[in-house]
Design a protein that fits this description.
Layout: H1 3-13, E1 18-24, E2 27-33, H2 42-52, H3 54-59, E3 64-70, H4 72-79
Parallel strand pairs: 2-3
Antiparallel strand pairs: 1-2
Helix pairs in contact: 1-2
Amino acid sequence: MTPDQVKTLIETGLPDAQVSVTGGEGHFEARVISEAFAGQSRIKRHQMVNATVMNEITSGTLHALSIRTFTPEEADKNAS
């Protein structure tokens, strides 16, 4: 599995998301920015992202995914 494949899965499951993925060999880090995260807890946000790649996790194709989630407003603050 490649970073681009992981990115596509997340974008398919969260269509409004801006996604960047790094890593390889089954271990990836995703930075996901989405309006859908507004008002959601950190755990709920991670569950939302994990749901987009659950088949790959279950099959063992994806071994580890580190997730950082932001609303667009939070992402703007972290960019400053």
